[in-house]
Every structure is written in C-alpha cells, then in structure tokens.
Write a structure and sequence with these properties.
The protein folds into 2 domains: about 15-60; about 70-119, no CATH class. It contains 5 helices and 3 strands. It has helices at about 5-10, 20-30, 35-45, 45-60, 105-119, and strands at about 70, 80-90, 95-100. Strands 1-2-3 form a 3-stranded antiparallel β-sheet, with no helix packed on it. Strand 2 and strand 3 form a beta hairpin.
C-alpha cells in the first residue's frame, strides 16, 4: 500500500507564543550575549520573530511611567532586616509592603513585567 503525504505534513506547524514566552525569549537573548541568529538557532525560533518581538517590547516599554517609588528606612533597622516599601497609585490607593532588602529589586522587576502583560 502506498502512503501519500499531504503538503501540510511537510510544513512545520506555526506555533503561537504567549506574551510571556515572547518576553522571556527576548530577555534570554539579551542576557545570553549571543548573536540573534545563533540564539534563534539554539532556541528553535525564527530570527524575524525574535526581531519583531524585541522591537515591539522596546517600543512598548519606552511608554511606561511609574509613580515615584518611596523607600522608608527606619534608622534602627539593620540592612539585613525588612524595609518598608510604600507604593502610591494614581487612583490615590496606597500599598505598603515589608520585605528584605535583597528581594526588593526582583520584586520591582516582577511588578514591571506584570504591568506589561496587563497592558
């Protein structure tokens, strides 16, 4: 019996990436130090897709603005102890958080990426 293959079998399926996946690929490429072509080959994604994602995220990120960040340190608190973080939102809502100082940078980055996904 002779097998027949349709033209669909020979073409790879186009994969739909989520926004988080696209952003992660862009971030990994920037941190890798590799050329775009080399990174895409290793990652199994097209160079044109990575270029377009990166271009869109750069354009999107340039429009972000945050309210001023206020860090209040108590003179009696040691650097390894918790710091108080107060975030004032445009709608007059305030958020108070207590966390260790070494977690602050990654926390701010997580909020930044979360706002990019929400927008």
């Amino acid at each position: 019996m002779k097998e027949t293959h349709s033209s669909e079998d020979s073409c790879p399926k186009k994969r739909n990436f989520s926004i988080e996946e696209k952003r992660n690929y862009c971030k990994e490429w920037e941190e890798s130090g590799m050329t775009q072509a080399a990174f895409c080959k290793v990652s199994g994604i097209s160079k044109s897709a990575l270029y377009q994602w990166n271009k869109n995220f750069k354009k999107e990120d340039s429009g972000f603005g945050f309210s001023p960040l206020v860090l209040e340190k108590q003179p009696s608190i040691k650097q390894t102890d918790a710091i108080q973080l107060s975030i004032s939102l445009p709608n007059q809502m305030q958020l108070g958080i207590s966390m260790s100082e070494d977690r602050l940078v990654s926390f701010i980055q997580e909020i930044y990426y979360a706002t990019a996904v929400v927008r």
